[in-house]
## 1
Amino acid sequence: MDWTGTISIVLLFILAIMFLLKKNSSRNNSSHNLPPGPKTIPILGNLHMMDLKRPYRTMIKLSKKYGPIFRLRLGFQEMVVLTGYETVKEALVNQADAFAERASTPFFKEFAKGFGIIFSHGENWKAMRRFTLSTLRDYGMGRKTIEDKIIEECSVLTKTIKTYAGKPFEIQTVTTAAVSNIIVSILLGKRYEYEDATFLRLLKIISENIRLSGTPNIALYNMFPILGFLLGSHKKVINNRNEFQDFMQTTFIEYLKNLDENDQRSFIDSFLIRQREENKKMTNGYFHNENLKAVVGNLFGAGTETTGGTLSWAILLMMKYPEIQSKVQEEIASEIGIRQPTIEDRTKMPYTDAVIHEVQRFADIVPTNLPHATTMDITFKGFFIPKGMQIIPLLSSVLHDESQWEKPYQFYPEHFLDSEGKFVKRDAFMPFSAGRRICAGETLAKMELFLFFTSLLQKFTFQPPPGTSKNDLDLTPAVGFTTPPIPYKTCAIPCS
């Protein structure tokens, strides 16, 4: 594997000494019925058998041998992997409290410092998540006010795409900017032009960090933090985080100048007003600037990359399967015509709704999920799992579970349609995870995907560039924490 070149013989020798001196923390398998797993080798554990670029693929293969619950050790990291719909649902939904903690890894600890929502723990996590969900609702998440913002952004996006006049271009840049503007409108109370230099820089920072977070170098850093000086990726991520937070700090200062509790313009305003209230009470609470910077970063990143990546997959798959694209356009023409699509149209458009859901399933945009941890010792499906164990609820295994999906590795919208062509909800549709740590922006993402997708296919037919056939289109996911498609070009042909 190409990543092995980064580990020198000298460092392996040092690690071997550390390993021999380190108190053996592995738990005795004879005293507890721990989940099974592949044999480990000194220092590396099971690292030698992992595809570090796409670890979820190795985990799915291992589940076929060791069952839906198995143990791995990668370097000094021990974890339990949960695979398949039934197992993941039992853990995250039926026993949600026991699996509600976020795993603490060297990279997450250094990056987040325990602040924000995504990587925080305990009371800090509860307070920030509670405030975030209620404030997002206040600013229209799932309501008409945010729908109007999305519709306005759809109009800007389609006008921008028209300027390419059917010539090949990379659509990911403008679609990601459009999606990002929705969460930006909530966070900052404004939108950016797609070519705005500051906006493009923020988008680049977020994209780069999410990509790097899923690379072999970060995985190796989590396993062997001592290698940090050799593996530059985590330093790049930290530098990007600092640049983003410096921008946010400047923004907060500007917002404080015009702060009016009777005229709250943004999520940041609401947080700063709550911060002022907490300060008056002299409480050592959670509404401080470190949490504000972290929460805004969490929402900006999560509200941009996952939905933006899914929309990129949607356009690529429409080029790959033009017959499906035609059926969506026929339904749009029949149910909507030339007027602007609204969220109320979704219930009248089962095929389009099925296609969007299948895009999300097929795209598998966060395949490994964010790692959880157990909050207590627990016996789970006959196996003992100790408190604090890192848990990988493998979303990719749920979205490709052969017992749940007729054609798990094919793009097949009929997964979400019954024999009469009506839309069918599927319990194993879990792209937003589940349980206590389910994605806070699920409602917003669903609204965005429907409105952006239908608006684009109402106005354009997407085709491969001249000289490229649909069979040439590459459906290999990019390497990263999220898995958007590899960058591609499309031709957006205006519909007559």
## 2
Amino acid sequence: MASSFRAFLNSPVGPKTSHFWGPVANWGFVAAGLVDMNKPPEMISGNLTGVMCVYSVLFMRFAWMVQPRNYLLLSCHASNEVVQLCQLSRWAKGNGYLSEKKDKASSK
């Protein structure tokens, strides 16, 4: 058990590297997005949410291409992408860019 922990500790993606602490810090974006789900759509910034979507997609690609592959960073940014896309859809619905299907049916 101690030897496997020592191997993880000294690995190229272990806690002694930025490959570990960078993704750990980035989970804060996911947590903030989840907390913001309780706020009204009027408080969501469409520009910032769109930028966060692009940022997460770019860093998902980076996490996949960097050697050694950084699966922790990939999972962090994939989770952030999902959260930000949900926020973006809430913002779009709140500003009338997306309408519900029942609204289309009632207008006909």
## 3
Amino acid sequence: MSFIAEYGFVLLVLACAFGFFMAWGVGANDVANAMGTSVGSRALTIKQAIIVAMVFEFCGAYLAGGEVTETIKNGIVDAEVISPDLMVLGMMSALLAAGTWLMIATMKGWPVSTTHSIIGAVIGFAAVGVSTDAVHWDAIGPIVASWVVTPMLSGIVAFGLFMSVQKLIINTDEPFLNAKRFVPLYMFMTGFMVALMTVTKGLKHVGLTLSGGQGILLAFAIGVLVALIGVALLSRIKVDEVADRGFHYASVEKVFAVLMIFTACAMAFAHGANDVANAVGPLAAVVGVIQSGGAAEIAAKSAVPGWVLLLGAVGIVIGLATYGYKVIATIGKEITELTPSRGFAAELATATTVVGASAIGLPVSTTHTLVGAVLGIGIARGIGALNLGVVGSIFMSWLITLPAGAILSIIFFTILRAIFA
């Protein structure tokens, strides 16, 4: 107890600094991947993508980030097995380790998983620095399984969405008119899906609790509003006969470019809701232990403070704005050629999968999920449409990330324990 009492303020300041550093890494690396399809399909410029991401990443992180944060905070290690001082130093080590690896990866332009980084780091300090009994190994299974299941699920959803676009719009006698007819329905799906998760799961920590029926009704209304806004925007788009001579579906893709704005917002919101936990989950654990005076079991049950989510949201936005350009186009341009109609299917499938995972508190990798969706689009076009070399290098970076996070965490944990011993 004396350790927490003596160094409490210093530890809190360091933990906030490390948490902000980790959030910066999430913004610089993972958010850039999340917006890559919008840039790669040329629906948004890099500057526009950064602005969209800044607004909706912040909203997703602050309004809907609480559920997954609880999993990272309490679900991976056993607070009753780890002493309060080791819990504080360990979670700080995990933040610093994951943030450092993300900075290295971003400098190299590698699209890596922030979820892998932080979970590997938390497991590393707990298993090696404390005891293998300190890790909830039974909870790791579903998380690891999600890294395989979610890309597959996202790929299947993206495949289905893209095939529906082909059937309803592309392979018809009047693709432009059908695009203006059916795209508002896709806009409704986007608005409804994100709103449903937000109003039913994500607003409890800001004091708004709705019943299931109220949540569905409000989400439906928001979906209709989004569709109406879309209809108003689409009414301004006319057939571009000159562009259509060079590319038969040029006018159709202009319609989908409007839709991509909505799916980009949904993607950014979903990413903020899920991946803010990678930065603030360990920080929330440290804050809980310090505020409870070292009572780890009390801290484990404490709610995630709103200001902690706010710190993570701000860090993500700054990371994206300052360094996100390094990797923002990797997924959008190098796996398969994307157009707005293809990019929309990838983004909506990814957002749907990530939002669903966030709702049940499962920390999934946005990078994995988005790559799965883009692969689904590529497969729908034929395996030859995929750049298998790039896909292989991305898979390799995923394999390296978890052990890198664990090793760095063990090193930093040893250093911090020596400093504060």
## 4
Amino acid sequence: MSNTPTPATGPVTLITGATRGLGLETARQLHALGHTVHLGARDPERGERAAQQTGGHMLPLDVTSEDSVRAAAELFRSREQHLDVLINNAGISGPHATAEETTADDMSTVYDTNVFGVVRTTRAFLPLLRASRAPVVVNVSSGLGCISAVGDTETRAVAVPDWLPALGYASSKAALNMVTAQYAHALPGFRINAVDPGYTATDFNGHSGRRTVAQGAEIIVRMARIGPDGPTGGFFADHGPLPW
């Protein structure tokens, strides 16, 4: 697919971390629904393959690099006059270590993608989002970022897989939830929400998840398609709102 798209007739969407897993499936579903989809990719070759698979357009983008994010926004502006939907999907789990073994550097690496990457990208693309008539931001979070649920012993035993390095990952998603709420408060003309795709089988977890990528992407796609009268500042799963 060409990386210089013709003027869009449907919503214009950017997905970070879109070369595999939930990002790739979300791109596929939104393209099928008429969105012009730009796939953020750290690896351009992989990004080109993903664009061909989904009918989208590859955008070189590394959310951990201020220079890369800035260059991506400039390139995007040369392609499109506005951005309707930003899906902050890029995320990492971090080193597999116990809470006792986890270092501050380990956590910093996770936060650089899962939290600071969202802030870098959102800030850089704000002018393009403001040019939309109904801007939407979807932050891909996790139920593990829900403090009330994880604080419950029985819920935690069911929800937290043994392999998960929960100190860095879960706390980064809790931070992302607060970032979501703060952006929604600061930008009342936007619809800004966090979503929990559930425990989805992807490369991220060695395909150990209980849900398919199509199932996991459903809530991302649903919240990407809300209108100006839709919710904002919330945290959602398939079955409805989640507690923070």
